[in-house]
Amino acid sequence: MTTENLKTIIIGAGAWGTSLCFLLNRAGFECEVWSRRAEKSLEEVVKDADVIISAISMKGVVAVSQQLKEIGLKDKAIIVTATKGLDFETTLTPSQIWQETFPNHAVIVLSGPNLSKEIKKGLPAATVLASNDTEAAELVQSMFASDIFRVYVNNDPIGTELGGTLKNVMAIASGVCDGLNLGTNAKAALLTRALPEMIRVGTHLGASVETFFGLSGLGDLLATCDSPLSRNYQVGMGLSQGKALEDILENLEGTAEGVNTANVLIKLAHKEKIPVPISYQVYLLLKGKVSPVEAVENLMERELKEEFWYLEF
Predict the structure, then answer these.
(1) Is the pTM of this model over 0.85?
(2) Active-site pick, 7, 167, 243, 271
(3) Is 167 a catalytic residue?
């Protein structure tokens, strides 16, 4: 398959889906964005599609993947998933759901420090495309690469995906940290300890350590935990100011996937016995079982230990 005359469909017309369309257009490729409000049916849109990009929220992945299975895809159609989250029922990632549904199709994960509002301003950014099918990943790489978007490829889809997923929980913690005016020292400590927590979960699930030091891990962590543009950061900031979670979510422009991810992550960590102290305090905070100040105190009072004990995976 070459990039000439590829029919490309983006499912999801939110901020992220329209940003991905902007990037494709910038690189010289046409695409069609579909949402449930569109006049055309999903079946009409995906007919003969060569590249299907999923930019929907986590809660819609299972339903849409099943709908596409019933419709049927072109034999060599490539599926790109740009969703960050975990399925509550199965604890699977979006790419795992897509691959189970379409075992004979190339599935590619797109993830990185890509705040949609900055992308739409034409500001430079970089991302990662990860897949077990290198040829397919390189094809999509050539479609997205432009003067404002640098695209890398790797062969660790689960690690790339988990980096982008788990950092959303850390972004909530980061918003709390800034909202409580805890200072630069505390923020640095939080982010430094957040990364090994993400690595513990990722390697337990089969990811490579190195992936978490790349764009989809450390890069996305830094961007999301330090920007008011991040919806998950906004959740943490709102909670630190005493706002109710329901009110915060109602006023967000889009979905804060970190809220659902925290719930699924704690379920998974409990089952697999993975230590996730920061995520657990975020979970308790979201459930209303601790206050922002109590969450910080709980982390500060944890048992003392060596700094690099977490490297013993």
Answers:
(1) yes
(2) 167
(3) yes
